[in-house]
Amino acid sequence: MGGGAGVRRRDRGDQAVQPGAGLPARRPVPPTGSPSGSPAATRCTVRRPSRAARTSPCTCTLPRSSPTSRSPSPAPPRSSTPACARRSFTAPAPEPPSPRASSRPGPPTPTSRSSPDGLGRCIRTTAVIAAALLARSGKVTFPLPGGDAFCARYIDLHLAAMEAAGADAEVNRGRVRARFPGTKRLPFITNVSTKKWGPSLGATVTAMLLAARTPGTSSILGPSIEPEVTVSADLLARSGVGITWQGADALHVTGTDHIAGGVFPVPSDRLEAATLALAAAITGGTVHLDAFPPCGFPPGLVSVFADTGILLTAERGGTTVTVPAGLHATEMATGPHPGYPTDVQPQLTAVLTQAAGTSRIEERIYSRRDTHLAALRKFGAVVNAEGQLITVEGPSGLAAADVAGEDIRAATALVLAALAAEGTSTIRGMYHLRRGYGDLLPKLAALGASLTIDQEMP
Q1: Residue 281's domain spans which residues?
Q2: Which of 1, 15, 343, 449 is most enclosed, with most CB atoms within 10 A?
Q3: Whole-angstrom distance, CA of residue 380 vs CA of residue 160
Q4: Residue 406 CA, distance from chain mean position
């Protein structure tokens, strides 16, 4: 095992902290995809911060966002949904590249028609990227996506959108080949909502990218209205694509053969902001999220935080997070926007181990999401799952543990648990964390967490 980058808190009062501040220059956290950042090569040790570190207020600066706008488009076409077979494919567990790999595939050129397998099987957005290539070049080959395999996850709605747009799609030996048989493309209608789990965020963007390069006005029924979707729609609208929302019932997209370039700001990540807020809550501390006002959080999250005892106060253009009366047990459920995000459920589960009473969390976006529970038990948490229902008994005295995160949010939940545990914990699987956050560990370190990133021998 090689040397690591140690991080300790310094007294800095209530001041702004830029991403990455507070880290010594000996060994920065390696970027995702680099040989030194491969899954088997890194681990994180976390020690509970001192009482002074937990009670001193700190500020974390997030990237600034800008309001979105929508452009009008002609009325949708009166056509029936194209007939296409509904097929289900389970995403395989991610197969990260070997730490000994000496080279990585370069970025595809604008005319590339395939997605590199090594990358495609490690991320969830492979089908979305493939849709953009298909829309531009007329054919594409890509691997079945990987990403977080906490339950069976399907790409049937992505393939249905491709077929609705007129493409032929087939799956063979873990790879998808899709192509448009002719040169003429017609407007289409596709439904991206499931009967039980609500609309698909990824399939909505897939259909939107296909429609953006299809002449005429296509209709996406039951679209996701998650902020990531509406911001993507706004980017297309600013680039010359016609975008019209019909509430949450439909999204109408008028395509163009020329999508203009430009400069577009990326909004702050509400999931990262929520994670930082929960880090403050589990340690009994205070944090100020600079340039991220409370209205940046979904109403469902604000309501659950309030029930749990987490207070979000608008101050100085951002949000101050406090837990003035301690944490409370709660009963809640995840849901589509504007409900409580499923991607903040594992972190909340970790925090509720410190709340007095019995908490119940119902997962309504996926068939199950509980890969973080076994590792939380190693810390001493009393957590159980039965189907989609997670039960948390608290408060639990957490003790240091050696655990591994199996997906992005599960790994994040374990980092939060380690912040509240007595002693020094070791968390493996940090490559998951870096797939979902830009600089979460440096930000936590700048806020007072005692973190060390070590290199492990393969």
Answers
A1: 5-64+269-455
A2: 449
A3: 45
A4: 14
